[in-house]
């Protein structure tokens, strides 16, 4: 009998529940597709707890790393369902696309979040009362049974059901009266699918900042119903959710065109935590001289990230390598530069890195003097869809059929 791979030693349940490989991602997609139609539409809001998330796909860690992208997921689903049957599921898949496009055109929303978080880190250190309440929430010791259960599930598995995320964020903000940015950070440090765009904007949505004035209130009856009675008669929850004050969103910064392929003979591929879809890169280019991975996971938070987050992305990147190829892991811009020189590269190509730490590391590299040129290669769906995320999701949603129609082109 073979034991777990060595990288799982000392890890939480997260990597045993979500093995970080392309094979696993494809297997799970194939298993879920038959359930992505009317069954998903009817049952997706039920959260039956750890190990029993049977009515949703649980694909988010794989989609987040782009082992599976929206195109692959949509094609697989529409091979077995009509567009009408799969409408709910595809809308959820495209919510992600929408959030990515929204923040990409307003990158200072992420900068502002990081700025607020650094200020809050000082507050947590200097204010004993805030620190105690924050620690109780993160440790799942608030005395609110479902909230504490979700905190434990998140930390040990790296995943929470969507409904649990909504209830959790609402209780964090409106019952525990903790700053939303600290809650978003707690999620980002533990979620395997933790995403700069989706996480930040979903927390802003619950707080009433994203859809201005419209908040989400967690209610005991709703929790009891959709957790299958696991949490009956929860008491002590806030009975109202007044919107959190925040500045208006910044003006839109238009998306720049993608850099072109093809490439010179001596080029290297630089994967990163935002996109490890090597098979896609290889479909469009000749064989690279070297392949590397830029590691920036720990820059998502001023606190320590759960180790399973970085391990998931790195091992997932290793899982897409052709046989016999090794992956150079590069910690910063100087390491990228040394790697390019070592392999005498004429060009580096990386999958497009949207707003966030991976992009920031690449920007620092590009600012180095005498670096090998870097090009960022963006998927055509992202280039087409993201500029449409100018207003709310519902105007964006109208474009979904046209976006799907472009997949075959
Ligand atoms: C406060 C809060 C924080 C969140 N943080 C993240 C995050 O960091 N990363 C993340 O991927 N999702 C996040 N979500 C969205 C959603 O909860 C997860 O995508 C979903 O629970 C993942 O589980 P699943 O793969 O089983 O989803 P399914 O229901 O099977 O959906 C399929 C796919 O569609 C996408 N999707 C589903 N729901 C949403 C949604 N509401 N918004 C955007 N995309 C969605 C995901 O890629 C998901 O894998 C957050 C939601 C809330 C309320």
Word description of this protein:
This protein has 409 residues and is mainly alpha-helical. The chain has three domains: 15-104 and 387-408, Serine Threonine Protein Phosphatase 5, Tetratricopeptide repeat (Alpha Horseshoe); 110-226, DNA Cyclobutane Dipyrimidine Photolyase, subunit A, domain 3; 267-378, Rossmann fold (3-Layer(aba) Sandwich). Helices cover 49% and strands 6% of the residues. It is built from 20 helices and five strands. The chain has helices at 14-17, 22-32, 38-43, 60-65, 70-78, 87-104, 108-126, 128-139, 145-157, 162-175, 180-190, 196-207, 220-226, 278-284, 307-319, 333-342, 357-367, 380-385, 393-397, 400-405, and strands at residues 267-272, 290-294, 328-330, 347-351, 374-377. It has a five-stranded parallel β-sheet with strand order 3-2-1-4-5, sandwiched between helices. α17 (357-367) links the parallel β4 (347-351) and β5. α6 (87-104) crosses α12, α7 packs across α8 and α11 (180-190) packs antiparallel against α12. Flavin-adenine dinucleotide is lined by residues 44, 56-60, 63-64, 92-93, 95-96, 99, 161-162, 165-166, 169, 187, 191, 193-195, 198-199, 202-203, 206.
Q: What are the segments in which pLDDT stays under 50 over at least 5 consecutive residues?
A: 1-10
The CATH H-level superfamily of the largest domain is DNA Cyclobutane Dipyrimidine Photolyase, subunit A, domain 3
Number of strands: 5
Name the bound molecules: flavin-adenine dinucleotide
CATH class of the largest domain: Mainly Alpha
Strand order of the largest sheet: 3-2-1-4-5
CATH arch. level architecture of the largest domain? Orthogonal Bundle
Average pLDDT across residues?
94
Rg is: 21 Å
Broad shape? globular
Structural class: mainly alpha
* Distance between the amino and carboxyl termini: 47 Å
The overall number of domains is 3
- Quaternary: single chain
Largest sheet: 5 strands, parallel
Helix content: 40-55%
List the helices and strands in order: HHHHHHHHHHHHHEHEHEHEHEHHH
For this structure, the CATH topology of the largest domain is DNA Cyclobutane Dipyrimidine Photolyase, subunit A, domain 3
What percentage of amino acids are in beta strands? 5-15%
Tally of helical segments: 20
């Amino acid at each position: 009998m073979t034991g777990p791979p060595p990288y799982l030693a000392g890890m939480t349940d997260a990597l045993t529940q979500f093995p970080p490989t392309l094979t696993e991602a494809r297997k799970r997609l194939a298993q879920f597709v038959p359930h992505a139609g009317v069954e998903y539409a009817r049952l997706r809001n039920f959260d039956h707890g750890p190990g029993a998330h049977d009515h949703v796909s649980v694909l988010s860690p794989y989609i987040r790393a782009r082992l599976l992208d929206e195109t692959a997921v949509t094609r697989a689903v529409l091979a077995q369902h009509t567009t009408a049957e799969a409408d709910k599921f595809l809308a959820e898949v495209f919510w992600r696309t929408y959030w990515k496009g929204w923040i990409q055109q307003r990158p200072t929303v992420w900068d502002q979040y990081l700025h607020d978080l650094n200020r809050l880190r000082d507050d947590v250190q200097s204010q004993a009362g805030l620190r105690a309440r924050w620690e109780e929430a993160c440790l799942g010791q608030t005395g609110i049974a479902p909230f504490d259960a979700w905190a434990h599930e998140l930390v040990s598995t790296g995943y929470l059901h969507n409904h649990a995320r909504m209830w959790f964020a609402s209780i964090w903000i409106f019952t525990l009266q903790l700053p939303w940015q600290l809650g978003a950070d707690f999620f980002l440090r533990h979620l395997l699918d933790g995403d700069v765009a989706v996480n930040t904007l979903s927390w802003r949505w619950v707080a009433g900042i994203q859809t201005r004035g419209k908040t989400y209130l967690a209610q005991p009856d709703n929790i009891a119903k959709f957790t299958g009675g696991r949490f009956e008669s929860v008491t002590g929850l806030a009975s109202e959710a007044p919107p959190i004050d925040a500045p208006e969103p910044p003006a839109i910064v238009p998306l720049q065109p993608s850099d072109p392929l093809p490439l010179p003979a001596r080029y290297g591929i630089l994967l990163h935590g935002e996109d490890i879809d090597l098979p896609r890169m290889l479909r469009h280019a000749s064989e690279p001289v070297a392949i590397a991975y830029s590691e920036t996971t720990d820059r998502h938070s001023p606190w320590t990230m759960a180790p399973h987050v970085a391990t998931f992305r790195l091992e997932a990147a290793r899982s897409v390598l052709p046989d016999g190829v090794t992956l150079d892991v590069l910690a910063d811009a100087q390491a990228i530069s040394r790697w390019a020189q070592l392999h005498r590269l004429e060009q580096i190509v990386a999958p497009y890195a949207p707003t966030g730490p991976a992009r920031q590391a690449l920007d620092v590299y590009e600012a180095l003097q005498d670096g090998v040129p870097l090009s960022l290669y963006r998927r055509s769906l992202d280039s087409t869809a993201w500029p449409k995320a100018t207003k709310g999701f519902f105007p964006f949603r109208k474009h979904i059929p046209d976006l799907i129609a472009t997949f075959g082109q």
